[in-house]
Amino acid sequence: MSVGEYIRNSQIWKSIFRHPAPYDRRNRTVVMLTNFFLHLHPVNVKQQGIALSYTWCMGGITFFLFLVETITGVLLMFYYRPTLEWAFQDILLLRDVNTLGIMREIHRWGAHAMVITVWLHMYRVFLTGSYKPPREFNWVIGVLLLVLTLLLSFTGYLLPWDQLAIWAITVGSNMARATPFLGHEGPGAAILNIGGFDLITNASDARFMLLGGRFVGEATLNRFYILHCVAIPLVVAGLIAVHFWRVRKDGGISQPL
Amino acid sequence: MLDPHPDLTSGVIHGLGYLYALLFCMNAYWAVRSFKLGYHFRLPKSLGGQDVPSAGPWAMYAVLLLLVALAHFVSAGRPDAFLIRLPGWLQDLVNVFADPISYFALSTVLFVAMIWLREWWVKPTAAWVLLNITLVSMGLAITDYDFRQIVGKPDNVPIVGMLFIVAFFTWIYFKRANDNDKRIAEGRPLFEQENNEKVLVWPDLVYAELICMVLITVVLVAWGIVLEAPLEEAANAAKTPNPSKAPWYFLGLQEMLVYYDPWLAGVVFPSVILVGLMAIPYIDFNKRGSGYYSFNERKFAVITFLFGFLPLWVAMIILGTFLRGPNWNFFGIFEYWDTHKLAVLDNVNLSDLFWTSMLGQALPGNMFLRELPGILLVLGYFAILPGLMAATVFRKFFHRMGFIRFVVFSNLVLLMVALPLKMVLRWTFNLKYIVAIPEYFFNI
User: In order of start, what are the domains of chain A with their CATH numbers?
Assistant: First the structure.
C-alpha cells in the first residue's frame, strides 16, 4: 500500500471527504453534492454556458477578489490603528519596516481591479441579455453589490490618512451637503425650519451623518474604518450569498432560452 | 545644466525597450499565425499585382520593432542624443486640439464609428492593426515628461489598463454578436447552441476556476511587487491640493460638476443612474436576445447602454483623470499642469439671455418671474417631451410598455440625454444655468 493510499484510507481522511476521489463519473457527481464549498455549483452545466469567451469569468474573478481583499484586509488590520495619532504612522511603518510586505499593495490593486471587474461583469450580463426574465431581480441585487463595492473602495480610500486620502474623501463627501432637503446647501433645505429655526445645518445634514463631523476628522476615520472593515463586508457577504443562490434558482448560468 | 523635467531618461528608454520587445514578440507570433493560416493579399497593379503572403509584411514589421527595441537597449545610456521620441510639433498639435469640446466630439465620433463599422473592426487583422497603432502611440507618448507624470501615477495605472480591457471585451462582444446576427439571418442555430452538451462541473468548471484564481493571484502579486501603493504626505486639512480629485471611479461624476451643480451631479444623477440600472430588466420588454450575444436583436437597448457606459462613463473617467488639472482646467495630454492657466469663464444664465439680451430689459425682481422661462423649459422637457416621444419615435415602445413603464423609461432617457445636452448648450451659448435660484441652491 502506498503512502497516498494509506492516507486516503485513514479514518481522518474519510471523515473529511465522505467518498472516494472524484476520478469517475459517480464520484464527480457526489463531490459536488457533499462538499460545502462546491455545493453552490450544480453537478453539470451546459458547455457553452461556462465557455470563457461567453462568461469572461468576471463575476467569479470579482468574488475571488472579494476573498483576496478580505484576507489581505484582515492582515492589514493587525498593523493599523484608526486614530489621528497612528493611522498614517502605521501605514508608514507598514511600508518601511515590514520587509517584502506587499499586503497593502495587493489590497489596493485588488480593490481597483475589483471595481473594474464588477463593471465588466455587468457589461457582459447586459450584452448577453442575461438580466431578462427570469433573472430581473438578480440584476437588481447585482446593482446593489456594485454600489457596495464602490462604497467599500471609497471608505477604504480614507484609511491611509494621507493627503490623497482626506482630500479625495472631502471632494466626494462634499456632494452630500447638496442633497435636496437633507443637505445644508441643497435645494429645499431652507424650507425645513420650524419658527425660523433651521433643522438642516452643517451640524445636522447628510454630510454630517456621513462624516460624523463638520469636516473629515477623527470621527470620520473611525466611522469609515468600521464601515470598511465590518459593516459593508457583512452586507456584501450576505448579498453575494443571495446573488449566487438566485443564479441557481433563476434558471442556472445564463443560456439562450 | 540638468533638466528637472527630462522627456527621456535612461530608465524610460530601457523600459520602452521592453515594450517594443514585447511588441516584437506579439507581431512575430502574428506573422507565424498569418503564415500558418495562409493569408494572402494582392499587390496593386502598379507593383505587379501578384498574390503575396501577409506574413511577409508582418515579419518585416516585427523585425523593425526588434531593431527599435535593440536601439533602445543599446542607447539607454545617452538619453539626450536619443532620437526615437515624439516630435514636438505633434505634441503641440495634439495640445491645440485638446479641449472638452473636441474630446467629447471625438469620443462620440468613435462611438458611432464603432457601431457603424462593427463588421470591419472585429476582423482579427483590423483589430490587430488598431492594437499596434495604440501601443506604438503609447510608447511614443511616454517619451513626453508631462504625459508620464499623469499616466504613470500608481493609482492611474489601472485606468490605463481598464482602457485596453474595456476595448478588448467590447471587441469580443461585437465579434460574437455579428456572428450570431449572421446565424439568425441565415436561420442557423446560435453559436451558444452549437456543441452545447452538458458537462460535469468537476472537472470542467472547477479546474477552470482554479486556474483563473491562480492567474489572478500571480497578476496581483506581480503588480504589487512592481508598483508600490501610493502614499503622500500626512493628511493636512489646511493644505488643499490643486486639483483635488475624488477616487478615480467617481471622476466621471466629478466631471459632471462642470455642467451641473452638486445637488444634480453629485446626488440626483448618481441616484438616477443606479435606479435606472435597476429598472432596466423591468422596462426592457424585448424578449429576444436573452442569454446570447446579439446586436440586431436588441439594437436600441445595446446602443443606449453602450452610450451610457463608453462615452458617458468610461470616457468621462479618462477625461477627469488624465485631462483635468489644477482648478479643474482642461489640459492636453502633453501639456504642463500650470496652476496659473487661465480659462475664460463668461457663462451666462438663461434668465440673462432671455430678459436682458432678447427683451432688452432689466431682470425682474421676483425670482420666480425671473426664472420663469427656464422653469417652463425644464417642465416642458420632462412633462411634454415624453408625450411627444410616445406619439412619434417611440410609438411602438409606448404600446408595448404601457403608461407607467413608458413614463419611467422616457424620463430615464431624458435624464441621460440631459448631460450631453447641457454640454452642448454650454459650448454653443455659454449657458451657465437654465434655472438659477442661488437663494435656495436651486440651480439647473
Answer: 1-39 (no CATH), 53-249 (1.20.810.10)
